[in-house]
# Entry
Amino acid sequence: RMERARAAVEAAGLPTHEVQHCEGSAEVLGWEILSEGIVRPKPSRAWRVILSIDWVLSQPKVNISDLDKLIGHCTFIGLISRPSLACLSSVYVFIAHHRHRV
# Structure
């Protein structure tokens, strides 16, 4: 099944990543998939986001493009649990409103 799906995606002109088969845990596109059924961001990615949030909170002012990048990384992590993305909708409105201000 997986090979047929991959062939269909590639036939539509969309590139795919190499296929890795594993029995235990795996890392895929910035995620860890553990043999116990747990899916989580790689620790290095999670810590980079946590430390970036700490830095932003310690600043009196933050460049809007820096905030935009940080929220993009938070969105990536939030994709695993879609309800968490609702927390970011107001932040995206704020960024859009302030993006073109000097």
In short: The chain has a mean pLDDT of 89. Residues 43-58 form the longest helix (16 residues). The first strand starts at residue 26 and ends at 28.
